[in-house]
Amino acid sequence: MDLSYLFKSVRKHMIAFLITLLICVGGVFLLNAIVKPQYQATASLVATLASAESGTYNDFLASQALTKTYEDAIQSRYIANEAKKKLNTKETAYELLERVKVRTDPGTLVIILYAKHDHPQEAVDIANSFADAFIEKSTDIVPNANVIVLDYANMEDASIPVSPRKMLNLAIGTFIGFFAGLVIVLYLERKRGSRRRPLRHINTESM
Asked: Are 79 and 151 part of one and the same domain?
């Protein structure tokens, strides 16, 4: 199959191609309109050991080795229940944990805490409540823990929705619609060609 055949097929079945493309793009617009936007708030913590005040490389490594422990602790039901008390929410600890993700940057002592919600202020409150709850209870988990807030979550950063990604969805929908349109066009062209062959065969026999 060469490009000239493809272009000729598209020209012959342009209406079918455009309808397929519009259906896919229209579906994406509808999806973007229906799906509730999700907002993400971000808080960051720095976690060290109280015994690591000398600042040696070994102290840094000891503190870094515990960042994974801190990461898991923030995402525990213990901390979630403490955050729930601060939020005074009807959501369960499990539901709150579903909204929270924690990441540690390799080679640093920074812990990044993300919270998602369909209301930006709620996302900010959840992120900051988890951060405060962990700081208050960190010494119960690691006796010589020294955790401080580097940055609290704020409305300025959380006010921009992170999903749905409307432009990305539109690009994907257009891409899918374009190729789906080509598939439909080629199907119609082959079906048209298969109808012509029997007619030619009948004409040949009658001569």
From this structure: yes
